[in-house]
Amino acid sequence: MPNNYFLIPGFGAQGGSAQDAAAGFVRGGSRPGGAIVNISRALFSASTPDVTESAYFSEFSRRLARFNHELNTALSHAP
Predict the structure, then answer these.
(1) Which residues of the chain have a pLDDT value below 50?
(2) What's residue 62's pLDDT?
(3) Looking at the whole model, is its pTM more than 0.70?
(4) Do 69 and 77 touch, CB atoms closer than 8 A?
(5) Which residues, 6+ apart, have CB-to-CB distance to 30 below 8 Å?
(6) What is the pLDDT of residue 32?
(7) Which residue from 62, 19, 59, 68 is spatially nearest to 39, judged by alpha carbons?
(8) CA angle, corner 26, sides to 16 and 31, nearest 5?
(9) Which residues contact residue 46 at a Cβ distance below 8 angstroms, ignoring those fewer than 6 apart?
């Protein structure tokens, strides 16, 4: 199934690590990749219920950058 993507849930709020998510990516060949990592709950859940819109978007951006960095690091070190 070289042209299909695999959904990888569990990274973030469900306790899966970036290394766990990276294990689901296709390695080598002419088309590496093949995975969609779902981290929606970890991104969209506000840390406090009364957070302002501005603070929410700042927190969201920080989380997204952190998850992106963690996943890219795991992918660069994966076998």
Answers:
(1) none
(2) 93
(3) yes
(4) no
(5) none
(6) 59
(7) 68
(8) 140
(9) 56, 59
Show the beta-strand stretches assigned E in 1-79.
6-8, 35-37
* DSSP string for 33-50: B-EEE--HHHHH--SSTT
Residue 34 makes CB contacts below 8 A (sequence gap 6+) with 2, 4, 5, 6, 25, 26
Beta carbons of 78 and 25 less than 8 angstroms apart: yes
- The rounded distance, in Å, linking the Cα atoms of 60 and 66 is 10
Q: What is the pLDDT of residue 67?
A: 92
Residue in this structure with the two tokens 């042209």, named with its chain if needed: 3
Contacts of 44 (CB under 8 A, 6+ apart): 60
**Structure tokens that stand for 30 in this block:** 């002419």
